[in-house]
Amino acid sequence: MESFVDRKLATDEQESFKIRLITTEEEMQRFAIKPMAKEGWRPGLKDAELFLACDPTAAFVGELNGKPIATVRISKYGDSFAFIGAYLVDKAYRGKGYGLKIFNAAVSSVKPTSNIGLYALLHLEKMYERSGFRSHFHAARYDFHLPTTIACFPEILEKISVEVKAIEDVELENIFRYDTHVFGFERSAFLSRLLRAEGTLGYVAVNNDGLTVAIAERLLKALFEKLSHEEKAVPLVCMDASTKQGMDLGEELQGKKVFDLVYMVTKGLPNTCLEKQFGVTIVDLG
Fold first, then answer.
1. What pTM was estimated for this model as a whole?
2. How many CA atoms lie within 13 A of 85 on its CB side?
3. Is residue 126 situated within a structural domain?
C-alpha cells in the first residue's frame, strides 16, 4: 500500500535523497535532538518524548544514500495552524538544496489553507520571506545567573494578592483550559507529558477564584528560588522570551541575551493572547 510519505514527500531518486517521518523517540533523539544540541540550541532532556506527544506525524528526516543529513518539524494545531521548528541541515551539506527540499516537503504535509508560523534567527529572516513568511515581532533567548536575578525581583511582588502553587497541586484540566485560552489551540497531550516529566519544576499563579492567571514575575521568582535551593546547584537558567514583554522582563532581571529571534507567519497572527505570553518552553513548538 502506498504510504502518506510516498505520496506527499519529495524524493530525489537521482541523488538518493529521501524524506520520511521520524516515528520513535530513539530516532527523534538521534536525528533531531542530538544535532540540535551540537548546534548549541540546548534541547531539553525530554524533548524527544515531548515532540512526539505534541504531534507524532510532525517530524521528518532527510537521508542521502541512507545517511541522515537534515531534519524539520511542522507541528499541527488543528487544521488551521502549524508551527515549524527543529529545522537543520548537517554543515557539510548546506547550500546544496537539501534543506529547501525537506522544508517544502514538511510544508506540503499540512493543508494548503493552514497558517504556518516559526521563530527565525535574524540572519535567516530574508530566506523565510522568500518562502512567504512575514515578520511580526521579535523574541530572544536569555541566560539568567540565579543569585543576580533573584536580587532583581522587586519587593512589591510579595504584596500581590496571588497564591503561587506547585504544578502538582493544581488540577491539570484548569491548566489545559488556561493554556488553550492563551496559546489559542488545544494541546493537552503535550502539556500532560511536559508538566509531569521527571525532573520538571513548575508553578502556577492562582487568583481567589482558583483560576490560573499569568503573573510572570511571581512565577519566575518562585521557580528561581526553588532552583537556588536544590541540592545540586543550578547556576544558570535559560528562558526563551517570546514577546516584547518577555524581553523587557529579561532585561529587567539582568539576563544575558544569547541570540535574537523574529516571529514569522504566512497568513497573519493566530488568535492568541500575546499580552499574556512572556516565554515559551520549547521554541520549536511555538
1. 0.86
2. 22
3. no
Domain boundaries, position 186: 141-276
Q: Is the model's pLDDT at 19 over the cut of 50? A: yes
Query: Under 8 Å CB-to-CB from 189, ≥6 apart: which residues?
Result: 53, 54
Contact 167, 281 (CB under 8 A): no
pLDDT at residue 12 above 80? no
Output the domain CATH number for residue 181: 3.40.630
Helices (H), 111-260: 125-129, 146-150, 172-183, 188-195, 216-228, 244-252
Residue 15, amino acid:
E
Question: How far from the centroid of its chain's Cα atoms is residue 265's Cα?
Answer: 15
d(CA 110, CA 267): 14
| Claim to verify: residue 151 and residue 259 sit in the same structural domain | yes
Instruction: List the grid coordinates of 233.
Output: 546547584
Count CB-CB contacts under 10 A for residue 10. 14
Name the grid cell of 235.
Answer: 547556576
d(CA 126, CA 262): 11
Domain-located, residue 254: yes
- For the cut 50, the answer to whether the pLDDT of residue 283 exceeds it is yes
